[in-house]
Design a protein that fits this description.
The complex is a heterodimer of chains A (about 725) and B (about 425). Helices cover about 30% and strands about 15% of the residues of chain A. Chain A has a seven-stranded mixed sheet with strand order 14-13-24-23-22-15-16. Chain A is globular and about 85 Å long. With about 425 residues, chain B is of the alpha/beta class. Chain B has three domains: about 220 residues, NADH-ubiquinone oxidoreductase 51kDa subunit (Rossmann fold), CATH 3.40.50; about 80 residues, Ubiquitin-like (UB roll), CATH 3.10.20.600; about 90 residues, NADH-ubiquinone oxidoreductase 51kDa subunit, iron-sulphur binding domain (de novo design (two linked rop proteins)), CATH 1.20.1440. Helices cover about 40% and strands about 10% of the residues of chain B. Chain B is built from 18 helices and eleven strands. In chain B, the strands form three sheets. In chain B, strands 6-5-11-8-9 form a five-stranded mixed sheet. Chain B has a four-stranded parallel sheet with strand order 3-2-1-4, sandwiched between helices. In chain B, helix 3 runs parallel beside helix 10 and helix 14 packs antiparallel against helix 17. The chains are: A alpha/beta (about 725), B alpha/beta (about 425). The complex binds flavin mononucleotide, iron/sulfur cluster and FE2/S2 (inorganic) cluster. Flavin mononucleotide binds next to helix 4, strand 4 and helix 17 of chain B.
Chain lengths: ~725, ~425
């Protein structure tokens, strides 16, 4: 037995436990279940519910399993009459003031109190005095409150204190009058806040949009993947007769632990937006008319057949599935279109030939916590990838030093060691200088004028260590007007300091878009293209004859492509929504399913492939994107394009990748462009895209749009 | 009967004109012990041994041996350690810490200094209940000022290499903040909610640092122990209960007040000293150690001496030494309801049994008094009390349970009578003051 293992006895069976472990952690490794409410493995111990009382030999009182450390030779009885009596006593106390309104409570059927009461409660109550009533709170559009049901376990309070760092909820008053409260009337609006819905063991804090719309036992639980950032949080979608009613986290320690962002939880509402495109439509004499799928496809294929290849472009959402990207890539190849991209918000493409084959985080998500220094460049990381923001906070709490380099000042709920605001490039140059690094050729002149500031020197000193460190470039760095300069300088600094350089890319599948060759400069698996296609900027300037938009809305997903620029082009939009932008710019609209109505695969920022199946019935006549693309390909007469399922597409992808392995050499970044040295150091005020605006589904999620976060977004 | 020596330890300045001044304290041998320590004549180990040998037990209610408690501190670890004095005195019936603060604050300051020295603490706090704003707090603060002026506190005191900063902290009047870990939370500026143990304050106390919490009287007794020797102190009292105790005598008594008497004084002597039961009435019951300890019928307590062992053997507890005397006109149901109301109101609310159970007890008792009780309520009361006792984070749960258990044990007939007679009390004094 190793040094930190000890022998204990649980219900007569000898068990090995770790020194310092609490009894409940030990019993959880066995079949002896100890009932609990306040205990949660991700939160600090509170030991206040007293449900987990167990008998311990020689102890004068029943002891709380969640707060009593194991000791060698300890004999624990979780189901002795003595233990059961203590547990039943607590249960009786918990129930006396509980409203027992299970028939009208959304938690019914999945309530920890209800479940445990089945085992430990009495059939009838001995309490015949008045019950407590607690006034409900309005804490925003996402979480409903029925505070009379609260059992005061304080999980929600500890969540705020420990996980988000924002103490939205606390306890006020004492004794019987103690209640969970916001103290002042306010909504809770941290990006992870709604996890308190799952944490609350009863129906006190519940899912507001879901309220009264289904019962847990009627729904079917589907495993799937969240579709709004490069993390790929694991989720369950709960569907009632094919309609998604809610989304909850699916535990995965490697990715999202037990949490998900509010964005991933409530985006499903977008599936059922009034703005969904219900059938194929075609614009005739400036009037939109319904058209059958068959006629619409024939119409499209006719246009595709005759279009001049360098006057056509294909633009796809970075949230497209791997299979959709692949079919788009093959279709474009078939038509010799190289004007194809999924990096819809980028502006600086000058150095794209030096792009990594797949932009990734560089380390695993779970490893972030082990880094001792982390520098985040050009990112509002909490909003861009909430789970990564959370991991960085965890790193900070366990002692990591965090540096932020960003033009904007964002709020972090941990101590930021150094925050370098204003010009990102200016700060990177200063940092490089403080590290005694050599500037890139093109920046020599500017570099000469740079004198590192105290703060830049401080960050340099922090990075001067042998520790494990990480240098992350986020959306603002990637979409910056001088993105290539930022990347080059960051790569130099990372090299100098031994940090791993990584990227937080947009959408749920930018890695897949790169790998499948939905890029103007590279084809499938990083192969080089003979003809480099137009960049988004060139596409929007050049009045092309034909544009195929795949869930990419002009003005919104493609900020630089406005309606005016599309008046002369034939625009074919494959889209779940018929928004005003589509209605004014498109000529044909085909309804495709959202992430919930299709099967597919996303590759997350750790290069983790996660496949999922369709979970919702298609809305209206919409079809999964891959099926529509396959139909177009078939009508174009493409060979070997008769895919039966998204799985068969995936099989072909895997096969081809095996045949043409991608070199995974790390590219040396080199700065190729001539730089306008004058404004290189300016602050360019690249605006982050508000977190509930980043994709079409989110823009249609009613409850998210009601949050303070969304109204904050509107004003910027 | 031999006369009982009074005011030997904490109250020994009381006969003076202005007992609280530095000069008076000095005249009574005050700061002699501290002077010796500052001169390097006593090591921390010697101090702890002396306190251990004296038989001093914590006067905060639990009676834990003080010297032993001090020895739990990781004295030699080179980290900040704290001493905290608990002057939150809120147990109903108890008001003798207040007397120490008002009339002999220097004894407490010297006691805190010696304790801090013995445990290697360089910062000490006195947590005083907010209701003492009028007199005890200013007196104590004045004494602290005097002690600083006479170079008995501060940095490198009299070049002895001993540091001690002493601060007063004023609570906001919560009984629960007298529980030592709730007190620490409150001192840290948080809600006064007890912490679960382990870890104990000696390892993880104030701001997570090793901390010892002692009651006012426990600490104020220390100077005379060091001055006069452990044996002197021990011999004042009896086996297992060294020294003196301060009894706060209240209720139906001729001369209510605070009496410092040797441990082991018989209850009869105490009663006599206080002039007997008010108006010569017949004694019915006594709560011997503050409202939380089990009540004792007259016949039982009349055979007891007032010390830890005797009271425990008789089914109650020494508690805080607050003696609540009740004569035969007392309605035990109403007393119990009043006590139950206190614990309901003072529960911090975090533990389920205490939060929910204390109110349940109070409401049942109220129902009985209002004539709505049923006989089965009496069993239920005891069952509920049993389910609170020993099931909570701190001892407030026990404190709420013990009175219920003991009142129903010894005075069941009174409760029965009231239930059967729809709220009429067995003592039937209709104009009795109720809450
Ligand atoms: C609910 C509750 C209230 C208490 N109130 C006080 C108090 O007012 N004063 C006090 O000295 N100890 C009080 N105690 C006891 C303290 O927790 C602690 O045991 C004591 O201060 C230790 O000092 P001692 O060892 O010198 O007795 C209380 C305990 C409980 C459970
Ligand atoms: S027993 Fe009561 S007062 Fe003590 S911690 Fe628990 S709820 Fe608070
Ligand atoms: S789970 Fe242990 S006290 Fe709540």
């Amino acid at each position: 037995m190793s040094d930190d293992l000890i022998e204990i006895e649980i219900d007569g069976k000898s068990v090995q436990a770790k020194k310092g472990q609490m009894i409940i952690e030990a019993t959880d490794t066995t079949s002896s279940y100890v009932p609990r409410f306040c205990y949660h493995s991700k939160l600090s111990i509170a030991a206040n519910c007293r449900m987990c009382l167990v008998e311990v030999e020689k102890a004068p009182k029943p002891l709380p399993a969640c707060a009593t450390p194991v000791a060698a030779g300890m004999k624990i009885f979780t189901r002795s009459p003595y233990a059961i009596a203590a547990q039943k006593a607590t249960m009786e106390f918990l129930l006396i003031n509980h409203p027992l309104d299970c028939p009208i409570c959304d938690q019914g059927g999945e309530c920890e109190l209800q479940d445990i009461a089945m085992g430990y409660g009495r059939g009838i109550s001995r309490y015949n005095d008045n019950k407590r009533v607690v006034k409900d709170k309005n804490i925003g559009p996402l979480v409903s409150t029925d505070m009379t049901r609260c059992i005061h376990c304080t999980r929600c309070v500890r969540f705020g204190e420990e996980i988000t760092g924002v103490q939205d909820l606390g306890t006020v008053m004492r004794g019987e009058n103690m209640r969970i409260d916001t103290y002042v009337e306010k909504s809770i609006d941290h990006e992870l806040s709604s996890n308190i819905i799952d944490l609350c063991p009863v129906g006190a804090l519940n899912n507001k949009p879901y309220r009264y719309s289904a019962r847990s036992w009627e729904m079917i639980q589907h495993e799937t993947i969240a579709a709004h950032d490069c993390v790929g949080s694991n989720i369950y979608a709960h569907a009632l007769r094919g309609t998604v009613k809610r989304v909850v986290p699916r535990e995965n320690e490697a990715i999202n632990e037990t949490w998900i962002s509010d964005r991933d939880r409530f985006s499903y509402e977008g599936i059922y937006s009034d703005e969904r495109l219900m059938s194929p439509m075609i614009k005739k004499d400036d009037q939109w008319q319904e058209i059958s799928w068959k006629d619409a496809l024939i119409e499209i294929v006719e246009k595709l057949k005759v279009v001049e290849n360098n006057s056509a472009a294909v633009l796809a959402s970075p949230n497209s599935t791997l299979e959709e990207f692949y079919l788009l890539s093959r279709l474009s190849d078939e038509l010799s279109i190289s004007n194809i991209d999924h990096r819809l918000r980028m502006v600086d493409f000058t150095d794209q030939l030096n792009d990594p084959k797949i932009p990734l985080l560089g380390i695993n998500i779970a490893e972030i916590e082990n880094c001792k220094q982390i520098v985040v460049v050009g990112s509002d990381i909490r909003k861009e990838a909430p789970i990564i923001g959370h991991r960085i906070r965890k790193a900070a709490l366990s002692g990591a030093q965090i540096g932020i380099i960003n033009e904007n000042i964002n709020e972090y709920f941990f101590d930021v060691a150094v925050y370098l605001s204003e010009s990102i490039i200016g700060n990177l140059l200063g940092l490089l200088s403080a590290l005694n690094g050599e500037p890139p050729e093109e920046m020599r002149d500017i570099f000469k004028q740079i004198k590192p500031t105290k703060e830049q020197q401080k960050l340099a000193a922090i990075l001067n260590s042998e520790d494990k460190k990480h240098f992350i470039l986020g959306h603002l760095a990637i979409n910056h007007p001088y993105a290539s300069a930022i990347r080059l300088l960051s790569a130099k600094i990372a090299e100098l300091t031994g940090a791993v350089l990584g990227f937080i890319t947009e959408g749920s599948n930018a890695a897949g878009g790169h790998l499948m060759g939905v890029l103007p400069h590279r084809g499938f698996a990083g192969s080089s293209r003979e003809i480099i296609g137009h960049s988004i900027s060139e596409i929007s300037e050049n009045n092309l004859d034909l544009l195929l938009l795949f869930n990419a809305e002009p003005g919104k997903d493609i900020p630089n492509l406005s309606a005016e620029k599309l008046t002369d082009s034939l625009v074919i939009a494959l889209t779940p929504y018929a928004t005003e932008n589509y209605k004014t710019t498109a000529d044909i609209m085909l309804p495709i399913g959202t992430f919930a109505e299709t099967s597919g695969t996303y590759i997350n920022c750790e290069e983790r492939w996660q496949s999922f199946s369709g979970i919702a019935n298609p809305v209206g006549e919409s079809r999964p994107g891959w099926k529509v693309l396959r139909a177009i390909g078939s009508l174009l007469g493409m060979s070997e394009f008769e895919f039966e399922s998204s799985e068969s597409v995936l099989d072909e992808i895997s096969q081809r990748l095996k045949d043409t392995p991608m070199s995974n050499e790390i590219n040396n970044f080199s700065l190729q462009n001539k730089i306008n040295k004058k404004d290189l150091l300016d602050t360019h005020l690249v605006q982050s895209v508000p977190m509930y605006e980043v994709d079409s589904v989110l823009r249609h999620s009613a409850s998210l749009q009601l949050t303070p976060e969304a109204s904050r977004s509107d004003s910027t | 009967m031999k006369s009982i020596p009074e005011n030997l330890v904490c109250f020994n300045t009381f006969e003076a004109d202005k007992p609280w001044t530095y000069e008076t304290y000095r005249k009574h041998g005050g700061y002699d012990a501290w002077d010796r320590i500052l001169k390097g004549e006593l090591s921390p180990e010697q101090v702890i041994e002396e306190v251990k040998a004296s038989g001093l037990r914590g006067r905060g209610g639990a009676g834990f041996p003080t010297g032993l408690k001090w020895s739990f501190m990781p004295r030699l670890q080179p980290i900040q350690k704290y001493l905290v004095c608990n002057s939150d005195e809120s147990e109903p019936g108890t008001c003798h810490d207040r007397e120490v603060l008002r009339k002999n604050p220097h004894a407490l300051i010297e006691g805190m200094a010696i304790a801090a020295y013995a445990m290697g603490a360089t910062i000490a706090y006195n947590y005083i209940r907010g209701e003492f704003m009028e007199e005890p707090i200013p007196r104590f603060e004045l004494a602290v000022k005097e002690a600083y002026e006479h170079k008995l506190l501060g940095k490198n005191i009299q070049s002895s290499n001993i540091d001690l900063e002493l601060h007063t902290f004023v609570g906001a009047g919560a009984y629960i903040c007298g529980e030592e870990t709730a007190l620490l939370e409150s001192l840290e500026g948080k809600q006064g909610k007890p912490r679960f143990k382990p870890p104990f304050p000696a390892n993880f106390g104030l701001y997570g640092k090793p901390t010892t919490i002692n009651n006012t009287q426990s600490l104020a007794s220390v100077p005379s122990i060091i001055r006069n020797g452990a044996k002197w102190f021990k011999d004042i009292g009896v086996e297992n209960s060294g020294g003196t105790a301060q009894f706060s005598v209240s209720g139906h008594i001729e001369r209510p007040g605070n009496y410092e008497l040797p441990m082991g004084t018989s209850f009869k002597e105490l009663l006599e000293l206080c002039g007997g039961v008010l108006g010569g009435a017949k004694l019915k019951a006594v709560i011997p150690g503050g409202s939380s300890v089990p009540v004792m019928p007259a016949e039982t307590i009349l055979g007891c001496t007032m010390d830890y062992d005797s009271l425990q053997k008789a089914g109650s507890s020494f508690g805080t030494g607050a003696v609540i005397v009740m004569d035969e006109t007392t309605c035990m149901v109403k007393v119990l309801r009043r006590i139950a109301r206190f614990y309901m109101a003072e529960s911090c609310g975090q533990c389920t049994p205490c939060r929910e159970g204390t109110g349940w007890l109070y409401r049942m008792l109220t129902r009985i008094i209002e004539g709505q009780g049923e006989l089965e309520d009496l069993t239920k009361l005891v069952e509920i009390a049993n389910k609170i006792e020993g099931h909570t984070i701190c001892a407030l749960g026990d404190a709420a349970a013990w009175p219920v258990q003991s009142f129903l044990k010894h005075f069941h007939h009174e409760f029965e009578y009231m239930v059967n007679n729809k709220g009429r009390s067995i003592v039937s004094i209709d104009d009795e003051v109720t809450v």
